[in-house]
Specification:
By secondary structure, the chain is α+β, with helices and mostly antiparallel strands. Helices cover 42% and strands 14% of the residues. Helix 4 (133-146) packs parallel to helix 8, helix 5 runs antiparallel to helix 8 and helix 8 crosses helix 9.
Length: 311
């Protein structure tokens, strides 16, 4: 948990920002997220986010400018200049309605895929940093090593070792000419205006130039692990292709283009699962065991490396 003074200070800043936007503010604050990689609080229609402690303000500013220029794809910030609060970089956003986690049948797979395709077709602005997906995956593996021995750690580390260096964050990404989100999952979509406006992507912390397959990798990994039904995967992939997404061929088998990134996201997910289980002193649950078992299978089958992804 984050120290209370930082959360309280963030709430006060969100309140001030909300009141600056409207003199008729229906006061009310809520903490939406409190994690080491981000604290998010809401006051009425204004959201304040404290970014990870190691955030680079200049790189974040570049990412905020991209969001401001693409308001039909990314939620635009209220201000493109972050502020510093108790040593953390803070940004402000309008509130939107998130995906309902209790209604999986209403998951906006088509909207997510279409937004990704449009993002991937957008030219990368000059000076934008690389997409941070592989670096974050590497950090998850480092945390797994740091928590100490666990029987489930070995297959995860073996699967990770089979990946090419770029997927482990150890070398530049190939084909890094696409504008990528970097951390796509259903929690990264909101409706704005709330409650039933169009879907938009949120969270620009990992936005940058990179391999577009990385943004399809989490649902691809869930599908490969048996956690995402084939029908939902097909909806997502079909919508992405129909929107002209460049990460996969327009027809035929998409897996050669997705395999490396999907393996990396599977290993990252498994590493986080094992780390959380060790820290909580509990056994792995059924879903966590499924991704670890997938890593065990991956370690025995070489990834499908396309020529540009083999380095």
């Amino acid at each position: 948990m984050t120290p209370a003074p930082l959360v309280h200070a963030l709430i006060l800043r969100a309140r001030a920002a909300a009141h600056a936007r409207s003199s008729a503010c229906p006061c009310g604050a809520a903490t939406l997220a409190d994690r080491p990689d981000g604290i998010v609080v809401r006051h009425a229609d204004t959201v304040a986010k404290a970014h990870p402690p190691d955030s680079d303000p200049a790189e974040l500013r570049a990412r905020l400018r991209v969001a401001a220029r693409l308001p039909d794809i990314l939620l635009p910030p209220l201000d493109s200049s972050p502020v510093t609060l108790r040593g953390r970089v803070v940004t402000f956003w309008p509130y939107g309605t998130p995906v309902d986690p209790d209604d999986p049948d209403a998951a906006p797979w088509e909207a997510a895929a279409t937004l990704l395709a449009r993002l991937h077709r957008t030219p990368v602005p000059q000076g934008l940093p690389p997409m941070r997906g592989p670096v974050k995956a590497a950090r998850a593996m480092a945390r797994l090593r740091d928590v100490g021995p666990h029987p489930a750690a070995a297959p995860v580390l073996r699967a990770w070792a089979t990946l090419p260096p770029w997927a482990r964050g150890e070398a530049p990404m190939p084909r890094s000419g696409a504008l990528c989100h970097g951390d796509l999952h259903l929690g990264q979509l909101i409706r704005r205006p709330a409650p039933d406006g169009p879907w938009l992507l949120i969270d620009v912390d990992d936005l940058g130039a990179g391999v577009p397959a990385w943004d399809l990798a989490r649902p691809a990994a869930w599908y490969a692990c048996g956690l995402l039904p084939p029908g939902e995967w097909d909806r997502f992939l079909t919508a992405y292709r129909e929107a002209g997404g460049p990460a996969v061929p327009a027809e035929g088998d998409p897996w050669p283009a997705l395999d490396v990134a999907a393996r990396a996201l599977t290993a990252q997910t498994a590493a986080r699962a094992v780390t959380k289980a060790v820290e909580a002193g509990r056994p792995l649950d059924e879903v966590e065991r499924a991704v670890v078992d997938a890593c065990d299978r991956m370690a025995t089958v070489p990834p499908q490396l396309t020529p540009e992804h083999a380095k």
